[in-house]
């Protein structure tokens, strides 16, 4: 298995840590003002519905793309193409899987760089958003949303 170690891995990883651990590593201060607790969410250990599955899946895929190597090896790039093709075959929502398969046939995964993959995936997501009548996402902000946090510090 190829190593994914880069200089960036020496930085604390938001996706690999809880907030308090990440905050200690980055020396970020935890806000001292107490925020109201969010309303208790009913713990329903039930299968995900289409919307829950879609939201979780897009979050995972965008995070994956944002942590993809900046300059992947040929093997890593080829494996990412394979991943998306296999993923599209086994996605549990059959109409969604079919749509995604058709979309990636017309627009094959772009995996030469992190930026290229993140932009390609954002475009695929916006294709779905457009079909569903949802707002389009500004693809220039993918890493803020799924890796670094918003520039205004609201994720810190």
TrEMBL record:
Its EC number is 1.8.3.2. It catalyses: 2 R'C(R)SH + O2 = R'C(R)S-S(R)CR' + H2O2. The keyword RNA-binding does not apply. Pfam families: Evr1_Alr. Its main location: mitochondrion. Transmembrane segments: none annotated. Keywords: Disulfide bond, FAD, Flavoprotein, Mitochondrion, Oxidoreductase. This is Sulfhydryl oxidase. It comes from Leptosia nina.
């Amino acid at each position: 298995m190829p190593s994914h170690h880069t200089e960036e891995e020496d930085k604390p990883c938001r996706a690999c840590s809880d907030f308090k651990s990440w905050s200690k590593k980055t020396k970020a201060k935890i806000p001292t003002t107490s925020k109201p607790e969010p309303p208790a969410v009913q713990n329903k250990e039930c299968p995900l519905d289409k919307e829950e599955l879609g939201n979780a899946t897009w979050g995972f895929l965008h995070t994956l793309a944002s942590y993809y190597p900046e300059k992947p090896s040929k093997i890593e790039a080829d494996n990412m193409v394979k991943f998306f093709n296999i993923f599209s075959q086994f996605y549990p929502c059959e109409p969604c899987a079919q749509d995604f398969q058709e979309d990636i046939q017309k627009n094959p995964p772009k995996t030469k760089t992190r930026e290229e993959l993140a932009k390609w995936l954002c475009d695929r997501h916006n294709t779905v958003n457009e079909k569903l009548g949802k707002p389009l996402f500004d693809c220039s902000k993918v890493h803020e949303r799924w890796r670094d946090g918003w520039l205004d510090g609201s994720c810190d």
